[in-house]
Amino acid sequence: MFLKSIELFGFKSFPEKCKIDFQAGISAILGPNGCGKSNILDAIKWVLGEQSTRNLRAERMEDVIFNGTETLKPLNVAEVTLILSDVGSVLPVDMSEISIKRRLFRSGESDYFINNHPVKLKEIKELFYDTGIGKTAYSIMEQGKIDQILSNKPEDRRSIFEEAAGITKYKIKGLEAERKLEKTEDNMKQVENILIEVKRSYDSSKIQTEKTHVYRKLKNRMFESERDLHLLKLKSFLEKKNDKEEQLNKYTKLKNDLKTEIDNLNHLREKNLDVINAMESKLVRSQQSLYKLGMDINSKENHISLLEERYREVEKQVASAHAREKEIREKIDMLKKQREERNHALTDLFSRIKEIEKNIENFRKSIQHSEEEMRNNEVEI
Q1: What would the mean pLDDT of 122-144 be, rounded to a whole number?
Q2: Are 49 and 124 in contact (CB under 8 A)?
Q3: Which one of 44, 151, 280, 359 is most buried, counting C-beta atoms within 10 A?
């Protein structure tokens, strides 16, 4: 496997797109201090998934994005692409060349790509397991890294030898399997707790279901009863409707008969109009005489009404006195009856109180007996 090239854009001191090609043999990058040589190594570690800002010589991850100069504006994105060739015999891919890309926005959003297809960081790490390539693998040796490895404890150097021996992937998978097992055990405990809660809920739901069945049966019976009641009402309404229709026909016939009779009378009145006029004159004279008699009758009736009104007032006063006397006597009888009823009720209450006290004593004895049984059960448990 061979590092073919690296493309940088917006990463640290590379505001413009820059591509560095590597040829077979030894390649060297020369330049004065501060020109950005170490930034290339930081870019390689960064594209391989470095998450520590201290190892990237930055305070925040957004600091790896070009921050601008006096003449250039700051960028909002940093992007590094690593191209590897001759990977068919090392990596589990069906191609001879592969590109790894990482892109970071100033908003904090980060993307990873393999051959321009979006992937997760975990997929990139799994791709390079046991190949010696990685942010902390032995293929990247920084200044002072060898001294640090030699000065480390054997346990710390062990990871490098495991990477070279090709067992890192299996070790990491084993650790992941152990974490999954621990997580599975926790999930099983949670499932057991959930099952207990579900059983409680099931028992409660079962009781509610039985009540619901009873309720539905009663509701169906009530519906059938209401239906029968409405059918009976409908039958009654239909019978009333028939009666009303018969009455309507009867009154319609009576109306027609009266109309015929009125028409006949009108015809007869037209024939006897002269007789009617004479009778009307006679009626007027009779009405005048009646009016005079009416005046006299009204005068007499007013006098009689005055006398009757005085008589009624006297009768009302007598009746009021009799009614008041009767009301007082009834009230006395009612109070006597209420006193007797309250005496009986008081006697019943005293007897009920004695029964309740007796029941309370029985309940106390039952509770003491239950508590004794509970203590015996606890001892037995």
Answers
A1: 62
A2: yes
A3: 44
